[in-house]
Amino acid sequence: MSAVAQIIDNSVEADTQDLTDGFHLVIDALKLNGIDTIYGVPGIPITDLGRMAQAEGIRVISFRHEQNAGNAAAIAGFLTKKPGICLTVSAPGFLNGLTALANATTNCFPMILISGSSEREIVDLQQGDYEEMDQLAIAKPLCKAAFRVLHAADIGIGVARAIRAAVSGRPGGVYLDLPAKLFSQVMDADAGAKSLVKVIDPAPAQLPAPAAVKRALDLLKDAKRPLIVLGKGAAYAQADDEIRDLVEKSGIPFLPMSMAKGLLPDTHPQSAGAARSLVLKDADVVVLIGARLNWLLSHGKGKTWGEPGSKKFIQIDIEPREMDSNVEIAAPLVGDIGSCVSALLEGVSAGDWPAPPAEWVSTVNSRKEANIAKMAPRLLKNSTPMDFHSALGALRTIIKERPETILVNEGANTLDLARGIIDMYQPRKRLDVGTWGVMGIGMGFAIAAAVETGKPVLAVEGDSAFGFSGMEVETVCRYNLPVCVVVFNNNGIYRGTDSDPHGRDPGTTVFVKDSRYDKMMEAFGGVGVNVTTPHELSRAVNAALDSGRPTLINAVIDPEAGSESGNIGSLNPQSVVKKK
Ligand code: ADP
Ligand code: TPW
Ligand code: MG
Q1: What are the structural domain ranges in the chain?
Q2: What percent of the chain has pLDDT over 70?
Q3: 487 C-alpha to ligand 3 centroid (Å)
Q4: How many CB atoms lie within 10 A of CB 302?
């Protein structure tokens, strides 16, 4: 009998001992594949799926908005290398989750958005079902893969395909469409168990070709001014020891992208973080490890990269099509980062590997020291109201003393300045707005970071950025998570000083003056603190991290301190028309 034929109609009276159904099969398939947490928002048709998953021992974290649940799932994927699961209702819930799915795909985070959907027959004839929408078609262009399961007997395969698609090769977002009818489809329990698939080796190692390794080593060996750029792919790969060994054995200066900070400590003698513009401009051979030459690296060309043709790139990436995406890659190394870095390491350790020229190392070091010295006094100022530097100076000390803390960070000035000022010491401890610079990841990332790692979380949030997911402070309180949110309250987006030239409405970038975000946390039983000095800020954050209690600190920042769009103001288009 075929698997499909084994499905017994719902209405048939049968001995339920020997039966299973769609609900149970989905849960069993996830459990079989080591999925232990689901992030979502309940409702028709997936309310019971969440309840039953919880009853079966899966941790189910219910959010107030699907976008935040989706962001939580995405960052859970980044932290664990297992696909993070987001569960939503049909049409509006699905769409709310879709932004997070697209963002996960853009950032190469493995996640699976599972949404309930309406009846196929009605959707396809567009007859107006409850929350009718052709979700599969809409999801497809926004994620890496999309699947729909129509028969209970196919749930095992459907879940297996979704998992493999999410984590193999370049990781990304996957959509899994589960129509309402599927959940109550019944089938023989034995056949159901047999239909499940445990995905063997979901993200197989991909070894680089020996000739490609040799090409890369030959190029690197002759470099006069070599540089290693570490991206979030390197952080994701969890090849921490190999990467550290490659950097240290080669002696090459390294530059971490934002979410790769901490892979080696920012205080490491070879860190070129504080000499970023110099190393990008002057390096002659650049090794990219899990970092794309996208806008965040000025597409590998232009002023940032010095004279045209002055560089050669070695790029390690699992995605072959990433090579030459912006400029010529002289030595493409296609494979997984663990395997590629190990192969380079073998070459570098082989014996006569030259240290990088002393002149280059000392040029980088002196620029770095000068920049660090220039910044230092600004971090120590005890001004009221605080500016970004003095407030971040306080947080920098806290992370130095508590390097296991996970730092979540979003905003404009709050993001760009924190990235530069707060040193990180351990891998995968800095989670932020990623490739899109998207606002709204804050509370989803903070919640998942706490749930997945059990470590304390410090979320440093612009007041605008926080507003995109702020309602989830209730979720933080409900699950009693060790999350300390610091809202950098400068009364607006970039600055709190805009006004309407007509005096009719508030300026477009400003918020209610003297807001007290700390009261939001108090409303749900957490701790709220209002602070106006770096000293008060330190005390409040330390107390929060010591107690592990949900805390929100409203940090009053000078509304004049920020600049338009933080560090990327140059991307703003300028009007050429002067209004008369
Ligand atoms: P950043 O923003 O930090 O520069 P990107 O997101 O641009 O980083 O780049 C990450 C890159 O890492 C992507 O091109 C992705 O294909 C690659 N990647 C992710 N995981 C792995 C892995 N395990 N092995 C090799 N490459 C990987
Ligand atoms: C989904 C555009 C980029 S940064 C930002 C917005 C609205 C907020 C900056 O203000 P904040 O930070 O957080 O108070 P600060 O310290 O400079 O005052 N919608 C989305 N994503 C983005 N990136 C935007 C809008 C934006
Ligand atoms: Mg602000």
Answers
A1: 20-195, 210-365, 381-569
A2: 97
A3: 9
A4: 9
CA-488 nearest atom, ligand 2 = 16
Instruction: Kindly give the pairing relationship between strand 7-8 and strand 186-188.
Output: antiparallel
CATH superfamily membership of 20-195? Thiamin diphosphate (ThDP)-binding fold, Pyr/PP domains (3.40.50.970)
The CATH number of 210-365 is 3.40.50.1220
For ligand 2, say whether the CB of 510 is within 6 Å of any of its atoms. Answer: no
Q: Do 191 and 30 form a contact (C-beta atoms < 8 A)?
A: no
Element (H, E) at 334: strand 331-334
List, for residues 92-127, the tens digit of each pLDDT value: 999 999 999 999 999 999 999 999 999 999 999 999
> For position 3, what pLDDT does the model report?
46
Closest Cα to residue 331, out of 208, 181, 183, 175? 208
The set of residues, in sequence order, having a beta carbon less than 8 Å from that of 302 and lying 6+ positions away, is none
Q: Which residues have a Cβ under 8 Å from the Cβ of 135 and sit 6 or more positions away?
A: 90, 91, 94, 115, 117, 175, 177
Which of 94, 57, 294, 73 lies closest to 166 in space, CA to CA?
73
Residue 306 is predicted with a pLDDT of 96
> What are the residues facing 7 on neighbouring strands?
187
Do the strands 226-230 and 406-410 form a parallel or antiparallel pair, or are they unpaired? unpaired
DSSP 344-400: HHHHHHTS-PPPPPHHHHHHHHHHHHHHHHHHHHHHH---SSB-HHHHHHHHHHHHH
With vertex at residue 438, the alpha carbon angle to CA 522 and CA 232, rounded to the nearest 5 degrees, is 105
Query: For the segment 413-466, what is each residue's pLDDT rounded down to a tens digit?
Result: 999 999 999 999 999 999 999 999 999 999 999 999 999 999 999 999 999 999
Q: Is 463 in the pocket of ligand 2 (CB under 6 A)?
A: yes
Calpha distance 97→71 (Å, rounded): 8
Common-topology check for domains 210-365 and 381-569: yes
User: pTM for the whole thing?
Assistant: 0.96
Contact 440, 446 (CB under 8 A): no
Q: Which strand (E) or helix (H) includes residue 50?
A: helix 47-55
φ, ψ for residue 269 (rounded to 5)? -60, -25
Q: Is the CB of 412 under 6 A from ligand 2?
A: yes
Cα–ligand 1 centroid distance for 534 (angstroms): 36
The CATH topology of domain 381-569 is Rossmann fold (3.40.50)
The ligand whose atoms approach the alpha carbon of 467 most closely is: 2
Atom of ligand 1 nearest to the CA of 435: 2
pLDDT of residue 1: 41
Strands 254-256 and 7-8: unpaired
pLDDT surpasses 90 at 2: no
In DSSP terms, 62 is beta-bridged to: 40
How far is residue 450's CA from residue 11's CA, in Å, rounded to a whole number?
44
